[in-house]
Sequence to fold (346 residues):
Amino acid sequence: MRNFKRMLSLFFILLLLYIGHVLVSTGFFRSIEPQFAGKVLKEVALKGAEDMMVSQEDSFVLISATNRMVYPPVSEETGGLFLLDLKAKDFVPLPLTADFDQAFAPHGISFFKKDSTYQVAVINHTNQGHSIEIFELQDKKLSHLQSLRHPAMIRPNDLVLVDENKFYFTNDHRYTEGLGNLAEEYLGLAISNVVYFDGKDYQEVAKGIAYANGINYDRKRNFLYVASPRGFLVKVYTVEEDGSLSFVEDIPCGTGVDNIELDPAGNLWIGAHPNLLRFKAYAKGQLASSPSEILKVIYRKEGDYSVEKIYVEEGSKMSASTVAAPFGNLIFAGNVMDEEFLVLEQ
Fold:
C-alpha cells in the first residue's frame, strides 16, 4: 500500500511537471499587449493566405492560399497561387493556377529568378500525399513543369530555392500520427529535419529541430535560417559547397516563429504565434481567434543580433499570422485561415 501511494504521488508530480512544461513552453502565460507604430492600409479578400514572397526587383507578391476550415485538414482542400502587382497599387490578387487540373492545396512557396522568368516551387498537400510542384512564371503566366514526390517528404512545410534546380525543405514532424506525433507537439521533441535536393538526390542536412517550419536563404551572406516555433527560436546555418549545413547558433525569439522572409538589407521578417495552445485550438475550430505577431530580426553576425516586435495583437484584426513580407514601407501579412490578409503601412 505504501509503495502504491509513492507511485501515485510520483505519477502526479510527473503529470504536474509535464503540464507545467507544456504551458510554459507554448506561451500559455504570455500576456498579449497590442503594438504597431503604423496602420492597416487594406484588408485583402483572400482566404488562408498562408505564405507570401516578394520580388523586390519586379514589384510583385506571390501568394500561396488555401481555403481551409481547420488545420491540419480532415478533407481535400482547394487552393491556388496568386500574384499581387505592386505597381498597380490596387492590391487585387490575380489568380495564377485557375487552370491547374490537379489536386492543389499549396503551403510553403519559393521562387528563383533566371533571366526574365521565375522558377516557382510549392509544397502541395493532398489526400494522395505530399508533393513539391514546380512551375515557371513569366509575364504573369504560370506554367506547370513537374511534380516531385519522395519518401523524404514526411510532412513538408516550407522550402527555399537556392537555384533553379536545388532547394531545401522542412519537415515539421517526424511522426504524422500516434504517440510520436503527440510527443512532438506537446513535449516539444526536437526530432524534425531539413532535407536538401541537389537536382537529383534528397539528403537530410539538419535534424534535431522542434517542429521545423519556415526556411529562407540569404545568398549574400550564405546563411540558411530555419524557424522552430515549438522551440521559440530561429536556427542559423552556414551552407557548405556540397549543400550540407553547418550549425551556427540559435536565435531565441520568445514566440512561435513561422515563415521567414528577407528584406533587401538581409533582415528577417517573421509571422509568429505568441500562444501555441491557443493557436492549436483556433486551428481546430475550437476558438474564434488566435494572437498574431510580426518580428523583425536584425542578424549581424554570430552572437550579434536583435529581435524587434513590429506588430502584436490578440487576433481581433488578424488571427494566426504566418508570414510578413516587406516591400518598402509596406508589410504583407498572411495567416492560416482568415478571410482576408493585411497590408500594413509603417
Q: What stands out?
A: The chain has one domain: 31-345. The chain is about 10% helix and 50% strand.
